[in-house]
Amino acid sequence: MSVTLALVVGGLTSVGVYLITSRSLTRLLLGFALLGHAAVLALLAAGGEAGERPISGDAPVAELSDPLPQAFALTAIVISFGLTLFLLALARRQAQLTGDDLVEDDLEDRRIALETEAEGDDA
Amino acid sequence: MSHLVGVVAVLSLPNPRPAFVVALAAPLVSAAWAASKLSGGEVDTARLDWVEGLDLAFSFRVGPLGALLAVLVSGIGVLIFVYGHGYFGGGDRRGFAATLLAFSGSMLGLVWADDVWTLFLFWEATSVTSFLLVGTKSTDSTAVTAARRALLVTVAGGLVLLAGLLVLVDVAGTATLSEMGPVTGDQATVAAVLVLVGAFTKSAQLPFHVWLPGAMAAPTPVSAYLHSATMVKAGIVLIGVMHPVLGAVDIWSGLGVTVGLLTMFWGAIGALRHADAKLVLAWGTVSQLGLMTAMMSLGSGKAIFAAVSLVVAHAVFKAALFMAVGEIDIRTGSRDLRSLSGLRASMPVAFWVMVFAGLSMAGVPPLLGFPAKEAAIEASLNESGASGDLILAGVTIGSVLTVAYTTRLVLALFSDKGGEPTEVAPFRWAAAAPSVLLSVLGVVGYVLAPSVTDWVVPAAATLETKSAGYALLRWPGLDSTAFWISMGIVAGGAIIGAAAARHSSPPETVGANNVDRLVDRTLDLAKWITGRVQHGSLPIYLVVMALAASLAVIPFLGSIDADQLHAWDRPLQAGMGTTVVAAAIAVAVIRSRIGAALALGVVGLGVSALFLIQGAPDLALTQLLVETVIVVGFVIGLGGLTTQFPANGFVWRSVRIGTAVLAGAAVTAALLASAENTPSNREALVAVAVDEGGGNNLVNVILTDLRALDTLGEVVVLVVAAMGVLALSRADTARGGGAPLSDDVRKGRR
How far is residue B458's CA from residue B57's CA, in Å, rounded to a whole number? Predict the structure, then answer.
């Protein structure tokens, strides 16, 4: 396992987590994109050491990098691409409707929380 | 089985009027069947496999005890249905009749069960159906609270029982009751206590008696049934059935007798103080159950015999008493001992029913209650030593109070209070006949005591072989100590009862309130926790999740193997990796949206380069394409938004950074700890790809040939996402679609 790759994955995850805990839908979306990168790299890192491109005939079979994780990773890239674009559209729509792209608190949950706080004050 | 058919039949009746008549067919059949088994002595078994691998089965065994109890459950059930017909008069009672039938069927299943799990299932079924029955008047808040209380107490007890049964099955090595031998030891003690607690909740023993008096909020047919032959007897039956298995455990009889006698005493006190006739009876039931619990868990041959006799006698007289009080209730509209007046003249049938059933409850000859009570006293006399004296004293005091509250009830209910006699509605045969029959049965049972003995003795003997030699005595003779004690009890009780007839000051229903308060507190706590935990802020949820997920890595830290690690696959990896991380940090730091998007583009490019270095050109190409589209999308999609991200407070920011660092470290650690990959069989892949896939690019062949279906799914996902994006971005221009936006918002933002 390449320590560098592991560190890169960790770094991307860190920034990703930091961003998805933001209230701004745009940053959330940036965070998701970074987490997607992290996931794909993790797949690849778990797939073994670097090698020659997995095209038959280019190099001896033993020197080729493992194609199977790459196939998985390709799928992951495409799906996270779809997700990112969809979130983007959501953020844009939210901005059109409310003027900004902030994630609001769930109103029903807030109501329950406020109720119990009020009761606590009474007691 | 016939009960199940009956439930369906009643529910599917086109016409509501004969609901009760149809319903009583089922208990009639089972009562007749069980009666035919009474004296036979043979044992019927039935077994229906449920889950074979787990050795779960519905297993039944109808011996003398099962037959006797079934006669009680079904026989009184028939009378209850007749009574219900009279009690309710008209109206659609199909649902009620069906529930009552289901309840009666559950009770039968319980007394016939030969497998602890079968027993437990029916045990819970009676809890649930009785909940429905008690809460029949769903518009009445008292009834609903009472039903909830009954359900909570009995189901909580059911859980305790389940735990007890699990322990018991473990220690006994079998779940079949008839195969269990006596068990002792620590584990058996635990099982004994748990099973007893379960029985106490069902049979309303201290301190779980709180649900029973409240349960009389049910319609009287339900109360009469619940309090006499069913529900509350389940606990007694359980103690009896468990006697051969757990009776040898030290704590068994001590705990059972103590709680039973205390309950007998406290129940009688409650019955003496209430002014509502039905409540008096309910508390009386608590008291009687105490005596039965004490006798059943005492466990000597005589005591078991006495307990079974008491079960029979109590079922008969208590049902009659409830029915009579219910009849008074529906015909006068009141059950208040203080206000009802002149009923002796206006309701003679109810009066004589109450007198006979009451005398039976008090244990006066010539009624069935007398020999049963005698047996209990003799059983206490047989106990030696200080504990024996205590038991005798407890039974005696409890019995004196029993006579007292019975006397008080009958005297107060039928006395003339002066003034106008209470108005009485017309007589209904269906409401009166069953109670008359039951009170007559009390006398018949006394006269035919030898026959009753023939039924009771084999039943008791299945629990305790030493019970075989006893008999219900009509006349024990003047030289019998028990007889004189019995007479003393009657005399003393009658005096106290007559004196108490003029007073009533209902005790606080302390226990019941506590249960309700516990429920309210639990709900408040749940609400409080919900308020704290589910506060509605998405970022906080995510932080909590990330932290929890990070902690999950800890157990794997130990498996990091330094030998398998190397700094980088190729030196370039290090340079590119640094670039990627730096760009990622830039994404988070840059407060301008476009700037952040561009930084994301840099990350994407860096990742592509890493792919190339890793030997994955296809990935690199795809990533490049995707990244370009995303950056363009950002610029188009969010170009109009405020260009700066809002800043947030220092503390929250620190929490987020801390969580983020922890999550990153956790992921890195997890990766480092993961086992080395076994490479896929590349030779085979190459062969397949070239020969069958017809391509040299292995990744492409995997995606388009080997995993073609997956790729198709992936394409579908992309199409759906694209349609979503399209719909969302066109929503503001579509006529009538989207939410209305004021013009200034549009102008200002776009």
Answer: 27
ipTM above 0.90, yes or no: no
Domain ranges of chain A: 3-122
Are B84 and B77 a contacting pair, CB within 8 Å?
no
| CATH architecture, domain B537-677 | Up-down Bundle (1.20)
- Give the number of other Cβ atoms within 10 Å of residue B597's Cβ: 25
* Nearest residue in B to A49, CA atom: B569
Question: What single-letter amino acid sits at B233?
Answer: K
pLDDT of residue B606: 92
Token pair of B544 as six digits: 């909590």
Nearest chain A CA: its distance from B717 CA (Å): 7
Q: Which long-range contacts (CB under 8 A, 24 or more apart) does B50-55 make?
A: B55/B175
Identify which of B501, B373, B369, B345 has the alpha carbon closest to the alpha carbon of residue B439: B369
pTM tops 0.90 = no
Test B645 with A55 for CB contact under 8 angstroms. no
Q: Does B657 touch chain A (CB under 8 A)?
A: yes
Q: What is the mean pLDDT of each run of 10 residues along chain B (750 residues)?
A: 55 57 74 73 76 78 85 87 80 77 86 88 90 80 83 90 92 85 88 92 85 82 85 89 88 90 89 84 90 90 89 90 88 81 83 89 85 87 84 90 88 77 76 86 86 85 81 76 83 82 57 72 82 77 87 82 78 88 89 85 91 87 90 77 66 86 89 74 79 81 85 91 86 52 44
Contact B86, B428 (CB under 8 A): yes
Q: To the nearest whole angstrom, how far is the Cα of B593 from the nearest Cα of chain A?
A: 8
**Cα B100 from Cα B11, distance rounded (Å):** 12
Distance between CA atoms of residues B698 and A57, nearest Å? 11
Please list every residue in chain A whose beta carbon sits closer than 8 Å to the beta carbon of residue B637: 88-89, 91-92
What stretch(es) of chain B map to CATH 1.20.120? Answer: 537-677
Longest dimension (CA), chain B: 112
The answer regarding whether domain A3-122 maps to CATH 3.40.1550 reads no
Non-local CB neighbours of B750 within 8 Å, separated by 6+ positions: A96, B640
Residue B512, pLDDT score: 61
Contact residues, B window 530-569, toward A, CB-based 8 Å cutoff: 530-532, 534-539, 542-543, 546, 564-569
Q: List pLDDT tens digits, range A70-120.
A: 888 888 898 889 988 888 888 888 877 777 777 777 777 777 667 766 655
Q: What sign for the dihedral angle of Cα B551, B553, B556, B559?
A: negative
Q: Which residue from A34, A44, A89 is facing B616, i.e. has the nearest CB? A: A44
Alpha-carbon distance B139 to nearest alpha carbon in chain A (angstroms): 27
The closest alpha carbon to B67, from B110, B111, B131, B13, belongs to B111
Q: How many CB pairs under 8 A join A and B?
A: 339
* Nearest residue, CB atoms, A103 vs list B538, B584, B683: B538
Q: Identify the residue whose tokens are 């929490």.
A: B655
CA distances from B314 to B228, B368, B712 (A): 6, 9, 74
Question: HSE of B429 in the Cβ direction (CA atoms, 13 Å)?
Answer: 0
Which residues contact residue B4 at a Cβ distance below 8 angstroms, ignoring those fewer than 6 apart? B105
What confidence score (pLDDT) does residue B7 get? 57
What pLDDT does residue B349 have? 87
Tell me if the bond preceding B366 is cis, omega within 30° of 0: yes
What does the block give as tokens for B123? 């045990």
Task: Tell me whether B471 touches chain A (CB under 8 Å).
Answer: no
The values of phi and psi at residue B162, to 5°, are -60, -45
Q: Which residues pair with B697 in a beta bridge?
A: A55
Answer yes or no: do B610 and A14 touch at CB < 8 A.
Answer: no
Let me know: does B317 contact B434? Beta carbons within 8 Å.
no
Dist. CA B69–CA B228, nearest whole Å: 12
B745/A contact by beta carbon, under 8 A: yes
